[in-house]
Amino acid sequence: MRRRKRSPSRVSRVSHERWLISYADFITLLFAFFVVLYAASQVDKKKAGMLAVAIQAAFQQMGVFPPGTTQAPIDATKPIRFSIAQAMENPATAASLGRIASRTESPPGAAVDNEDLNKLQTELEAALGPEFNRKEIAMRRAPDGLVISLREMGFFESGAARMKSASQDAFDRIAGILRQRDYRLRIEGHTDNTPIHTPQFPSNWELGTSRATETVRLLIVREGFSPDRLSAAGYAQYHPVATNLTPEGRGMNRRVDIVILGHVLTADRLAQDESQAQTPAAAPAEKKTAQPSAPAALKPAVVRNAGDHLQLQQ
Question: pTM of this prediction?
Fold first, then answer.
């Protein structure tokens, strides 16, 4: 029996282009993979910035960290980079949160006289008009009191702690006005965020602290201030008053602040406060039944010890 021949149309043809289907699937999956990675990276940056701001605000309210100046827009539709959230400065945020854990409360009886501070501010503005016009000195009111900022451009060489000789006249005028009052003074050294690393100043901490202690030394040795009125503190770049993203802002942050606090607790002031506390109040119009007084042994007595502090003895 003769075998029938197959028709040419029925012969199966082998396709050599099926690899394109697998290749197209692979490209599609690879594109989707990178799209997912890109989307995940944007979400992480946004959440990192929001988390950084939330943690910073929480620690500031607890008093663990001093308030920063981070300006991070917490907007879910506008993701931000974590580095930008750490670098942006916002003085208004620091002012609204307050300097928690960086200031000590004034002792009782040493409150700042706002009326006298207003008069003092007027005297300083009149005596330092040229320096204010050249923006070498700035002045502002703070929760602690009146703050006089001696900016680096007018009083210190860049990267140095010794005060310029040309600025001694302005410094003498400031000291002459402050010498007439018995306010306590805290001298604060501040820098910008530009790192410094020299044999004398390994970091901004040493530079800011050295400028503060140098100013204290001048007030004691040159101006004759009593040491018990003075204290020094160094804050490096962590308490800016302006942004560090511009040269003008960094120039405002490089400064020495003279913070005018409450009055010094001298023996005369303590005696005055004591006499005011013991002054009897005016008797009311209506009669009241007289109460028997406590025995003399049980009455509290105020005594003064060798360190000029007050103690309450029973």
Answer: 0.52
